[in-house]
Amino acid sequence: MSPEVNDAANDDAGGDPGTVRPGGRTARVRAAVLRTAGDALAEHGFARLDLADVARRADVGKSTVYRRWGTVAGLVADLLTDMAEQSLPRTETGSLLGDLRANAELVRSTLADPRQGALFKAVIAAATTDARTAESLHRFYEIRVAEWAPCVEHAVLRGELPKGTDPYEVIRAVSAPLYYRLLTSDAPLDEAAGARAAEAAAAAAKAGVYA
């Protein structure tokens, strides 16, 4: 085992699976493993994800991977946490439609990416049968929706939306048609699809659907 892996393993001894200390070798090992896990998920799906294979492909000691993440579900949970933390922050344009278009474009471009789209398909499929993966996926979306909810709250304060509008439901309404197209159709996720999703959510919110 390399000195880097030895040091990372020693840093993590006694910690809970999936937890890491920031910075240094530990951070580099975590980044390498999560990147490799994401690649493997996109290529082969959750059912064929294997900790030993991830360790080999990431050039990290197998014992380090098992000690830190414990299970495939633990590794996927950490991957989703990292994805939520690394995702771009919200864009505020000064108008509800502008903000929702920015949100839709972020979601659309992510799902349209061959690697990221395949990765989300794999995780969503796994969440239907694995409780921990489902919990991790729910937490991922809670973080991302909460990041964008203030755009709706600010639109209410500007008078663009009725008082009492549920910001979380509006943000979910932007993403919903894009995920539906990803999972049920081979139609391209182009910019027009993102624009339609944003415009539909904005129109519904202005009509009081989410109040």
From TrEMBL:
DNA-binding region(s), residue ranges: 50-69
Domain of life: Bacteria
Annotated region (Disordered), positions in chain: 1-26
Organism: Streptomyces niveus (Streptomyces spheroides)
Protein name: TetR/AcrR family transcriptional regulator
InterPro entries: Homeodomain-like_sf, HTH-type_TetR-like_transc_reg, HTH_TetR, Tet_transcr_reg_TetR-rel_C_sf, TetR_C
Compositionally biased tracts (Low complexity): 15-26
Keywords from the named record: DNA-binding, Transcription, Transcription regulation
Cross-referenced PANTHER family: HTH-TYPE TRANSCRIPTIONAL REGULATOR RUTR, TETR-FAMILY TRANSCRIPTIONAL REGULATOR
SUPFAM superfamilies hit by this protein: Homeodomain-like, Tetracyclin repressor-like, C-terminal domain
Domain HTH tetR-type: residue ranges: 27-87
